[in-house]
Amino acid sequence: MSDWRVRAVRAGKRPFSRPAEPAPAVAVLAPEHSMDPRTEHRTEPISLERSVVDAAVYRDGHRIEQPTSLSEIYQQVPGKPGTMTWIGLFRPAEEQLTEAAERFGLHELAVEDAIVAHQRPKLERYGDTLFVVLRAARYLDDDEEVDFGEIHLFVGPDFVLTVRHSQSPDLSTVRRRLEDDPELLALGPEAVLYAVLDAVVDGYAPVIAGLQHDIDEIETEVFGGEPGVSRRIYELSREVIEFQRATRPLLDIMASLEAGFGKYGTDQELQRYLRDVADHATTAAERVDGFRQMLQNILTVNATLVSQAQNEEMKQLAEAGHAQNDEIKKISSWAAILFAPTLIGTVYGMNFDTMPELHWAFGYPFAIGLMALVCATLYLVFKRRDWL
Q1: Cα gap 165→169, rounded to integer Å
Q2: Which residue did the predictor score with more confidence, 123 or 16?
Q3: 223-236 pLDDT tens trace
């Protein structure tokens, strides 16, 4: 076990959480744009480890070597003046990164981050080597979701090592763009860093457009009273927060690069390119911040509309209950009015000889009058209380 691995274990860190998948000694070189670098092939096969997507040696902006193994690539390190090595890895095994670290003199902490992955976007400088972590994003139209990728870059004086842990970003486009522009590629590893940054930031534009479309749809659903809109707002808010975590740190990365222009002698033309990327990154970050605020406002409006709908339902229920109470009052009032003469009639219907007024000549008119009096009294009482 290497020294940096031993120190990581002693420090209680977990240097590698994904089981290493042994790579065969000989495989076919796959283009960087392939969805699965292990299945697609070049027209002219070149034997390289299967985690190596592409590898080349450049001099003055032109590809000069067609290596057949990483060992042949490593023989070029340190290279001749004006020579640069660019190796692209896709989910490499731990042993491959460890070997690359020994060959290029990479710092153990940066290598550990590249092995474990799941890092936040950042830029760290270890001597004359930059370690950059970027979060790429792409919008999936079918699922209406944002898929996030991760790429690590080791940028040294005469080498670039890119490590991808996801299908995006598509670095084959970046490599072709630079190979088609030898003057830009001749600027060295910083030109590769710029091109990767530019590709990642440009990839944010379709994601922003997709999120804007989703937010527009959600606004329509909110005012349309769709029942499942709250869940969609919550899910979209999580994607926007994740997107914000990818874009916001990028501003610090660009600021750090710009701060080192003078100290590290960055080419003037490359400085302009990097400032352009910084402008685009700022625009993207501002749009994402705006999306988060918009979703918070939409969530507030949705909660208000839901509350208003609930209040309206409660009002209707209260009105229905009030109407029912009025009906019950009326029924109860008439039942009481009808009960009074029934009670009097029941008393006088008893067949007892000794009952008062039984043989009285005015007994019948008295009973009828008493019934009328009681009913009238109850009617007036209930009417005064608005029961009738």
Answers
A1: 10
A2: 123
A3: 877 777 888 888 88
Which single residue is written with the structure tokens 């070189």?
29
Quick check: bond before 169 cis, omega within 30?
yes
The secondary structure of the chain in percent helix, strand, coil, rounded to multiples of 5, reads 55, 15, 30
Q: The pTM is what?
A: 0.69
DSSP state of 181: -
**Using DSSP, how many helices (H) and how many strands (E) does the chain show?**
11, 9
Residue with tokens 């909660």: 303
Phi-psi region of 60 (alpha: psi -120 to 50; beta: other; left: phi over 0): left
CA 73, CA 312: separation in Å to the nearest integer? 73
Listed residue (94, 108, 112) closest to 51, CA to CA: 94
> How far is 355 from 368, CA to CA, in rounded Å?
17
Q: 41 falls in which pLDDT band (50, 70, 90)?
A: very low
Nearest to 79 by CA among 64, 57, 99, 61: 57
Q: By the 8 A CB rule, do 110 and 199 touch?
A: no
Q: What sign has the CA pseudo-torsion 21, 26, 28, 31?
A: positive
Return d(Cα 114, Cα 108) in angstroms, integer: 10
Q: CB–CB of 71/102 below 8 Å?
A: no
From the CB of residue 140, how many other CB atoms can be counted at a distance below 10 Å? 11
Give φ, ψ of 359 to 5 degrees.
Answer: -105, 20
Q: Which of 231, 177, 232, 210 is nearest to 61 (CA)?
A: 177
